[in-house]
Sequence to fold (166 residues):
Amino acid sequence: RLYALFHLITFRGLRRGEACGQRWVDRNRKRRTLTIATQLVQDGWEVVENAPKTNSGERVIALDEYTNEVLDEHEQRQKAERAKWGGAWQDTGRMFTREDGSFIHPGWLTDYFEHLVEISGLPPIRLHDLRHVAASLMLAAGVDEKIVSETLGHSDTRITRDTYQS
Fold:
């Protein structure tokens, strides 16, 4: 049920907290864009909503047609969950929620991802490694490093170059 969340991290490079904090109001379906304007940050076990990690973390990213379809399907699934829960649904406005509409705790998401990796039988990979996959795929496809840097919300292209190009 969280395929769309993992898809966004893997192909558009969202950080964990950005994915957990993503709001439906920040998606422009017609323009196929997603504004990264907030994140959920874990402080101890408490979760607080903050602006993205850096000033450049506040950004608008392009969505390809397939990603737009993935989000459309996810939205329909979430609407069905809302109907199932009725008055008990917690309307957080978040794109990615628990089954009852409550926000996804970033720590829970990491634990859940580790569980999925373990039961898949695949070699170990961290949730944050999916962000690295996004950068690597974009660079391998010939996307200009400035665009990759902006998509990932890096404050400087040197961060992208030093981290992802070798």
